[in-house]
Amino acid sequence: MEGQSVEELLAKAERDEAEKLQRITVHKELELEFDLGNLLASDRNPPTVLRHAGPTQEAELRTLARDNTQLLINQLWQLPTERVEETVVARLPEPTTRLPREKPVPRPRPLTRWQQFARLKGIRPKKKTNLVWDEVSGQWRRRWGYQRARDDTKEWLIEVPGNADPMEDQFAKRIQAKKERVAKNELNRLRNLARAHKMQLPSAAGMHPTGHQSKEELGRAMQVAKVSTASVGRFQERLPKEKAPRGSGKKRKFQPLFGDFAAEKKSQLEMLRVMNSKKPRLDVTRATNKQMREEDQEEAAKKRKMSQKGKRKGGRQGPGGKRKGGPPSQGGKRKGGLGSKVNSGPPGLGGKRKGGQHQGGKRRK
Amino acid sequence: MRPLTEEETRVMFEKIAKYIGENLQLLVDRPDGTYCFRLHNDRVYYVSEKILKLAANISGDKLMSLGTCFGKFTKTHKFRLHITALDYLAPYAKGFGVAAKSTQDCRKVDPMAIVVFHQADIGEYVRHEETLT
């Protein structure tokens, strides 16, 4: 009995082993091609699974995928492993598959002005050394750039040439000339760039005052000058009768044409719901503003009352004058927004006369 | 061609709601397809999503019209409803005419006074031939 059970156990263990082996060993007619750098396995076997007419067999496709993945993982387990921060990691080899270009080939750029000229004249670039011996400092310095060999702006002694104005600053003159050369170079670089991208440089064509400019040119120059401030023309005053320029606001942005149809529908239905609901919507900002204004008016009225009590004899004009100011502002306030207080007059404004005036103001509306 | 802004949609809905009331949501939310409003050259078009996608392939200056024109926005941004919207408004229409007198006056007037103007086009005589005797 026990022997039999032991035999059974052994047989069972053997069967399990065989099964496991079966699972991890896959038989293929043609070996797969592996590119472990990209974790890629290419199966060249003719796919009998896909030849069946009719709907694809899910189960067979799944087994095919499982087999191929098993083979790939078998290969991965054969790679050299190393330990990186408590984990065992396999080092992948270099990828062998060449991936296609992501972006198209860059188109050839047009030649710059110098390149065209050089090509025309047949000028070849001369090979020059990087460093030049500088006598003054007694060391090798670069040919151009920072701390260059022959920097004429850094000279400490300049002789005034015979034909020059003795009061002229020769040092400043040299620095100015350098700046102009740099600016010219920059301009040419931008021009070349604009030509390459077929764009237009923003030119300052009509901006220099010549005295022979037309009305339109002057207008354009004036517009550009207005906007060329640090605040981009926001705080520039206009002449008394000058009109504001048209079209100087931000361009409107609209929703995209296709957008999210569901979202569009939802927002429209929401708008309809709000429109259809019978009670007027409470505009919180307006209501709070109204409340604040009423409170301010109450304060003002109280102060008036105090001053009135103080100067009873001579105070006819004061309250009378202030009376004028009362109703129009009330009427104006009533027109805006509905808010929560529609019919209640401002409380505590004391005096039947004043109450009457306010009633009158409301009725007027 | 672009979708309507919030303001424009509100103005348009208010106008259409005068004719069909709450049934407007049946126009917005249809069971048989996604329809939407698009603005092209100041005119509002009611168009299904499928047609819209086809129309997007035509350049703006060559596109004449798409779907159904409901109406147009005037220069002062008021919405004017067009007769071409009738087919979509008719099934949901609330009343059938314009009030001739105000609500208060309607109550005080004699029984034979005219209360409602039913404005119709000339085709109505042909359409409702049977009912009009």
TrEMBL record, chain A:
Residues 302-325, 351-365 have a biased composition (Basic residues). Keywords: Nucleus, Ribosome biogenesis. It is found in: Nucleus. GO terms for biological process: endonucleolytic cleavage in ITS1 to separate SSU-rRNA from 5.8S rRNA and LSU-rRNA from tricistronic rRNA transcript (SSU-rRNA, 5.8S rRNA, LSU-rRNA); mitotic metaphase chromosome alignment; protein localization to nucleolus; regulation of signal transduction by p53 class mediator; ribosomal large subunit assembly. Belongs to the RRS1 family. One of its GO terms (cellular component) is nucleolus. The keyword Nucleus applies. One of its GO terms (molecular function) is 5S rRNA binding. Pfam families: RRS1. Signal peptide: none annotated. It comes from the Eukaryota. Involved in ribosomal large subunit assembly. PANTHER family: RIBOSOME BIOGENESIS REGULATORY PROTEIN, RIBOSOME BIOGENESIS REGULATORY PROTEIN HOMOLOG. Residues 235-245 have a biased composition (Basic and acidic residues). Residues 202-253, 272-365 are annotated as: Disordered. InterPro entries: Ribosom_reg. This is Ribosome biogenesis regulatory protein.
UniProtKB/TrEMBL annotation, chain B:
Pfam families: pre-PUA_NIP7. InterPro entries: NIP7_N (IPR040598), Nip7_N_euk (IPR055359), PUA-like_sf (IPR015947), UPF0113_PUA (IPR005155). CDD domains: Nip7_N_euk (cd21146), PUA_Nip7-like (cd21151). Gene3D superfamilies: 3.10.450.220. It comes from the Eukaryota. Transmembrane segments: none annotated. Residues 1-83 form the 60S ribosome subunit biogenesis protein NIP7 pre-PUA domain. This is Nucleolar pre-rRNA processing protein NIP7. It comes from Sus scrofa (Pig).
